[in-house]
Amino acid sequence: MNKFSMAQPRTPAEAATLLVDKRFSLPMLKAGGIDVVDHLKEGLYQPDLLINIRRTRAGDAGTANVSEAGGKLRIESSATLADIAVSEVALRLAPVLAQAAGNAASPQVRNVATAAGNLLQRPRCWYYRHEQFDCLKKGGPTCFAIEGENRYHAIFGDGPCHIVHPSNLAPAMWVCNGTIHVIGGDRASLPIADLFHMPERGVRDEHNLKPGEVVTHLTCEASPKSGFYAVKEKQSFDWPVVAAFAVLALDGPTITSARIAAGAVAPIPWPLPNVAAALKNLSLDDDVGLRKACALATEGAKPMSENGYKLKLLPVAVRRAVLIAAGRKMEVEA
Amino acid sequence: MPTTNRPINAGSSMNDDTSRLDGVAKVTGAAKYGRDRYLPNALYVALIRCPFGAAEFEGCNEDAAKAIHGVVDVSVAGKECSYHGQSIGHVAADSPQAMVRGISALKVKWKRKSVKTRISDSVKENPAIGDKAKSILDSAELTHEAVYSTPVQTHSSLETHGGAIDYTGDRATIYASTQGTSSVKDGLSGPLGLSQSDYEVVCEYVGGGFGSKLGGPGKEITTAAKLAAKYKRPAYLFCNRSEEHLDTGNRPSSRTLVRVGFKKDGTILGGEVRVWGGVGIAKGGGGANIPSGRYQLGDISKNSEDVSFNAGGPRAFRAPGHPQAAFAEELMLDEIAAKAGIDPLELRKKIVKDKIIQEMLELGGNLIGWKDRKPNGSQKSTMRTGYGMGVTSWGSASPGGEAEVVINRDGSVESRTGTQDIGTGQRTTMGIVTADAIGIPLKMVTVRIGRSTLPPGPGSGGSVTSPMTAPTMTAAAKDAKKKLLNLLAQQLTLNADDLDIKDGQVTKAGQPLLSWADACSKLPNEGISSDGGKAESGKGGSQGAQFVKLQVDTETGVIRLNHVVAIQSCGKVICRKTAESQIIGGVIQGLSYALFENKILDRNVGTMVNDNFEWYKILGPSDMPHIEPVLWAKGQTGIRALGEPPTIPTAGATACALFNAIGHPVRNLPLTPDKVLLALEGGVA
Question: Are the CB atoms for B246 and B616 separated by under 8 Å?
Answer without folding.
Answer: no
